[in-house]
Design goal:
Radius of gyration: 19 Å
Oligomer: single chain
Number of helices: 13
Order of helices and strands: HHHHHHHHHHHHH
Shape: globular
Structural class: mainly alpha
Number of domains: 1
Distance between the termini: 56 Å
Largest sheet: none
């Protein structure tokens, strides 16, 4: 298994500086569009009825990284694949989770609230989780004698925070500002922007796939099962935890989606930032895992949302 995964470290995705800039702009635009749906009363609702929101935050930022770490200990992949999985699990919810929650007949208000909270929390929790679990894994990996990782990865925590603030924090604040002070304009533009955001994001994934098609064809059999199980664990974590706490079914659907749909685009931006990960490091395992996750979570999320859209939230009473 490890011999096959080690091949990934030498893979270089075709991702030019201009492509990285385009991805940065895309993520910022998407988060601006998401923030147009966020109102200050969402935060008030969370404070007044915090159980579901707290469940979602704990599921996403505490349980998912821990479950990911446990899966890694069982799988025992190469360090770059493991760190790629940890970084994915440390990112906030994905860009299309609100759309999927609506499609699944979930609690859209809760989804938007969790997006707002997770996006703001990610400025601190994403770097913190990655540094915590990543260093713990590297310590375990070396102690287990499974191999020597010759070039240890040192994370520039402040640089990661800075990147996340620029990509998520600023666009969300701008979106909140528009929503608060220009309600008429916001009402006109938010639907087209949201639709355009989804199209742009999916288009970017297609472009990334086409530019690296030969690499994906060669290595998809190596990462497909890993990403499938990891994503299933993420979705299962959200559903199991919210079910354990006896939340309403409508909230369970939303928390499941919010936990299982991760912002893989942000993970890629962080991976390609030379101030965080020096370019001389061979991090092909991280980038391939993140890139395929970006494809797979769209497939799994839409499939699950489509299934739930056909199932009633409540069973009719038997007479």
């Amino acid at each position: 298994m490890n011999e096959a995964l080690e091949v990934l470290d030498h893979v270089r995705l075709n991702f030019s500086p201009s492509g990285l800039l385009a991805l940065n702009v895309t993520i910022a635009f998407i988060m601006f569009g998401v923030a147009l749906d966020i109102k200050w009363h969402h935060f008030k609702d969370v404070i007044m009825k915090p159980k579901s929101a707290l469940t979602g935050v704990v599921s996403q930022f505490i349980l998912l990284p821990a479950v990911t770490f446990a899966f890694i200990l069982v799988l025992h992949p190469t360090p770059t694949v493991a760190l790629g999985m940890i970084l994915i699990a440390s990112c906030p919810g994905g860009n299309i989770s609100n759309f999927m929650s609506a499609m699944a007949k979930g609690n859209v208000a809760l989804s938007v609230s969790l997006t707002a909270i997770a996006t703001l929390a990610a400025t601190f929790m994403t770097p913190l989780n990655f540094a915590l679990w990543g260093k713990l894994y590297l310590k375990y990996y070396n102690a287990a004698g499974a191999g020597n990782y010759l070039v240890p990865i040192e994370i520039d925590f402040l640089q990661m925070v800075q990147t996340v603030v620029i990509l998520l924090g600023i666009p969300v604040i701008l979106g909140l500002f528009f929503s608060q002070y220009f309600p008429r304009l916001t009402k006109k533009i938010k639907k087209p922007i949201r639709q355009l955001s989804i199209v742009i994001f999916i288009g970017f994934v297609i472009i990334l796939l086409s530019a690296n098609f030969s690499n994906f064809i060669r290595f998809i059999h190596i990462v497909f099962l890993i990403v499938l199980i990891h994503n299933a664990l993420a979705l299962g974590t959200g559903f199991s935890f919210s079910s354990l706490l006896r939340l309403p079914r409508i909230d369970r659907r939303t928390i499941t989606i919010e936990t299982g749909i991760q912002n893989s685009g942000l993970a890629l931006v962080l991976m390609f930032n030379p101030k965080i990960f020096p370019p001389e490091l061979e991090l092909g395992g991280m980038t391939v895992i993140a890139a395929w996750w970006g494809v797979w979570h769209i497939i799994s999320g839409l499939a699950l949302s489509g299934l739930w859209s056909k199932k009633p939230l409540y069973q009719p009473a038997v007479r």
